[in-house]
Structures are given as structure tokens and as C-alpha cells.
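Help needed: design a sequence for this.
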């Protein structure tokens, strides 16, 4: 897999998303993953602070990268917002 996360992730001002950029097959795309997805599938405790949220994101890096790749294969160039549904039954 030649997909890489290309920017430091950051938590949105409302705390509901972690935003990041990814590069796949010479295309860059803005991405985000919902806090709900991190809580349901990456062991983020409810009410966790920003540092813990970013740690859960980092710990789930491989699965998140794989989900971004799947989405980019379907439609390249469009911003990607990953939700809990992207990780169900995987």
C-alpha cells in the first residue's frame, strides 16, 4: 500500500473530527475521521481530551490509512470524511 498520511492531524475546534491529509497514487486529499468512529472502533474514551484523541488516531493509523485508500479508489480527489460505518465488520 503506497498510501500515506501527509500532514500532522488536528482536532477540529468543536472536537467532533480529526482532520488530516493523505496522498495516494500521486493525489493528495483532505480527510477527516469522526470522533464517533474513534470511540467505536479505536478505543477512544468518551470525553477524552485532544491529546488522547490524537493518540487514538495515531494508534489506529494503519486501519485509517486502509479506509482512506478504499475511499480514494472509489472516487479520487474528493474530500474524505470517515465515519464509524467505514470500520464496521472489518
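Sure. Designed sequence:
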Amino acid at each position: 500500500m503506497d498510501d500515506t498520511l501527509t500532514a500532522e492531524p488536528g482536532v477540529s475546534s468543536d472536537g467532533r473530527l480529526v482532520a488530516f491529509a493523505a496522498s495516494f497514487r500521486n493525489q493528495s486529499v483532505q480527510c477527516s475521521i469522526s470522533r464517533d468512529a474513534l470511540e467505536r472502533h479505536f478505543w477512544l474514551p468518551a470525553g477524552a481530551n485532544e491529546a488522547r484523541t490524537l493518540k487514538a488516531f495515531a494508534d489506529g493509523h494503519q486501519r485509517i490509512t486502509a479506509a482512506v485508500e478504499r475511499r480514494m479508489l472509489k472516487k479520487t480527489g474528493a474530500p474524505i470524511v470517515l465515519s464509524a460505518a467505514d470500520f464496521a465488520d472489518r
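The chain has a mean pLDDT of 91.
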